[in-house]
Every structure is written in C-alpha cells, then in structure tokens.
Amino acid sequence: MQKCSEKAPDTTCRELKKENLQLKKKLADLKRTQKDLVEKEMLLRTIIESLPFDVFAIDENGRYSLQNNTCEKNWGPLIGKRPADVQIDEHTRTVWFRNNRKAFDGETVEGEVLMRLQGEERFYYNVISPMRYDGRACGIVGVNIDITDRKRAEEALQESEEKCRSITEQSPSMIFIT
Q1: Confidence of residue 132 (pLDDT cuts 50, 70, 90)
Q2: Which run of H or E residues covers position 54?
Q3: Does some domain include residue 175?
Q4: How many domains, the chain?
C-alpha cells in the first residue's frame, strides 16, 4: 500500500485514507460476524448435547458429521463413518438404511421403530429429515427418542384390560365396581 507523503497528491492520500477506513469497517464487521457465528454454534452444540436422546447428522457423502453424547453412548463413535460401518444387527441396519434413503430422497421420515441396542430390543420414535441447500438434500439430520418404557407400560395396560374384560365376560355372577 502506498504511503501518503508530502510529494503524493492530496487526492491520492484522501483516497487511500478512505479505502483504509472502509477496510477497517469491513474487518470489524467480519470479526463481529465471526463472533456471532461462534456464539450461535456454541448455543446449538449446548442444546444438542443436553438432549436425552440420539441426535445425528449424515453429510451428502453418507458419513456421520454430527452426533451428541447420548448417540455416542448408544451406538459408539460415528463421526466420519458410514452407517454400513457401524456394528449393528441386520434388522436395525435395515431400518436405518430404509429411513436414511427416504430422507436423502427429500422425505421427512417419522414414526415408531423397533431397533436392537446392545442386544436388547428397544422402541424409538424416529424422525429423520433432509437438510436442504439450493432445493436439494445435502445431508440428513435425525433423532431417535427412546419410548421403550412407554411402549412396555402400554402393553402391560392392554394385558390388564384384556384380563379384566375376560374375567367380567366369563363370570357367571354379576360384578359390581363401587
């Protein structure tokens, strides 16, 4: 950059000073934007890490690019891996591949699924959505909310209702509930 000196014309010095001021303003704006981005990333990471269920993202190359601590505890470290690289049973693999494929095709997948986690059958409410950029799916993001306890309670309630119904239907005497 040229320095203003006594020999340089006044217009050149003014232009250089004006350009320098503009560059300083742009730099200050960039620093402020960078700070805002870092703060927003910290906020999102804190939110994601505090969720008590699996949160994950898979990039357009089919590799995991994000997982929270719950997801890592349940399925192991996934970052950089493909779903095919994860050691899971065949049924769970089929569920993952089917739902991921639908999401990569642009569909939001939502519903209850049965998966095997560490040898135990578990019920999850699964939501997987495409991440869109310029109208195309450039990745997917998903959650697996463990609903096993709720499903087991529903099954126990249904069994209890069936027993009660059976007793009342088969009883030769009248039954009164007071």
Answers
A1: very high
A2: strand 54-59
A3: no
A4: 1
The one-letter amino acid at 110: E
Q: Quickly list H helices, 51-147.
A: 69-75, 90-104
With cut-offs at 50, 70 and 90, classify the pLDDT of residue 101: very high
Cα dist. 112→30, 81, 127, 128, 177 in Å? 45, 25, 9, 12, 36
Structural domain span for residue 85: 55-157
φ, ψ (nearest 5 deg) of residue 136: -125, 155
Asked, for residue 95, whether it belongs to a domain, the answer is yes
pLDDT for 98 equals: 97
Strands of the sheet containing 54-59, edge to edge, are: 64-67, 54-59, 136-146, 120-133, 109-117
CATH of the domain at 80: 3.30.450.20
Tally of CB atoms within 10 A around 67: 22
Examine residue 3 and state whether it is found in any structural domain, yes or no. Answer: no
Q: What is the mean pLDDT of residues 131-150?
A: 94
Question: What is the percent of the chain where pLDDT is above 70?
Answer: 93
**Would 98 be classed as within a structural domain?**
yes
Helices then strands (H, E): number in the chain? 4, 5
